[in-house]
Amino acid sequence: MGTRRVLVTGCSSGIGLAVAVGLKVVATMRDLGKREPQEREAGDTLNRSLEIRQLDACCEDSIRECVDSLQDRRVDVLVSNAGVGMIGPLECQSVSEMQELFDTNFFGLVRLVKEVLPDMKQRQSGHIVVMSSIMGIQGLLFNDVYSASKFAVEGFCESLAVQAMKFNVKMILVEPGPVGTEFERKVYEDAEKMDLARADEETARIFRELYLPYSRKVFNSLAQTPEEIAEPNTSTDHSEGASVSPPDQPRVHAHDCPEARRPYRSSTPGHLL
């Protein structure tokens, strides 16, 4: 088989950037004004093995335009990485902010899969790699809405994977723990400036004095780099379709469950691409 075309979303920084520079891909981002880090990392591969294109996961027309621009509309591997974060007391977050988060984290994935899955099914071939989170498996204090969006992602993928297998399309859920990226830094910067007026005094105190300092400490001491997430460092049994992290990767969740409801989890997508 010839070179497979990999389409990666959310490539302006973090995990998406790290994944894209290690593969032959079409790297996409919502705002091409943020392409400079990707171009810098790409080096000589830019416009050879790596192309940068505009794609907004919140816009069906943008997704379709990007896919239509590819030869034969062919996407062999979709890596859905675009996402946003939100932490803080629930009563201090507006419903419109929650809807915007779901529009990117969940419906953005749905829009992407709707666009590429029919062609993959017709070709009887394809991979869909979805950047989820450990918080798609277990909720975490003050991450209520973000965790809910990742639970939605997990349910969507687990359900759809059963149908996809029939057409030889493999779905992979990547579930990292703490990862040190610009994404995380911005979430914490926004949290530091959050207006807690709608929270009761005790909730505000727990968030400011306990949660934020402890959470930052965890990230500073345990966070993996985006490059570690993108590195092909898991062992895989392709006959079972299962992936499992080696014992020295404790900070990334992987679920080894061949022939069961979760046979397609992985700590890193690289080995499949």
Characterization of this structure:
With 273 residues, the protein is α/β, with parallel strands linked by helices. 41% of the residues lie in helices and 15% in strands. It contains nine helices and ten strands. Strands 1, 2, 3, 4, 5, 6, 9 and 10 form an eight-stranded mixed sheet that branches. The protein has a two-stranded antiparallel ribbon with strand order 7-8. Helix 3 (60-68) packs parallel to helix 5. The longest helix is centred in the middle third of the chain and has 23 residues, at 144-166.
Largest sheet: 8 strands, mixed
Which radius of gyration do the C-alpha atoms yield? 19 Å
Q: What order do the SSEs take from the amino end to the carboxyl end, as H and E?
A: EHEHEHEHHEHEHHHEEEE
**How many DSSP helices?**
9
- Which ranges are low-confidence, i.e. pLDDT below 50, for 5 or more consecutive residues? 233-264, 266-273
Shape assignment: globular
Helix content: 40-55%
β-strand percent reads: 15-25%
- What do the pLDDT scores average to? 77
Tell me briefly what this model is.
Helices cover 41% and strands 15% of the residues. With 273 residues, the chain is α/β, with parallel strands linked by helices.
What topology emerges from the helices and strands here?
Elements: E1 6-8, H1 14-21, E2 25-29, H2 36-42, E3 50-54, H3 60-68, E4 77-80, H4 95-105, H5 107-123, E5 126-131, H6 144-166, E6 169-176, H7 182-192, H8 201-222, H9 226-230, E7 235-237, E8 242-244, E9 252-253, E10 265-266
Parallel strand pairs: 1-2, 1-4, 2-3, 4-5, 5-6, 6-10
Antiparallel strand pairs: 6-9, 7-8
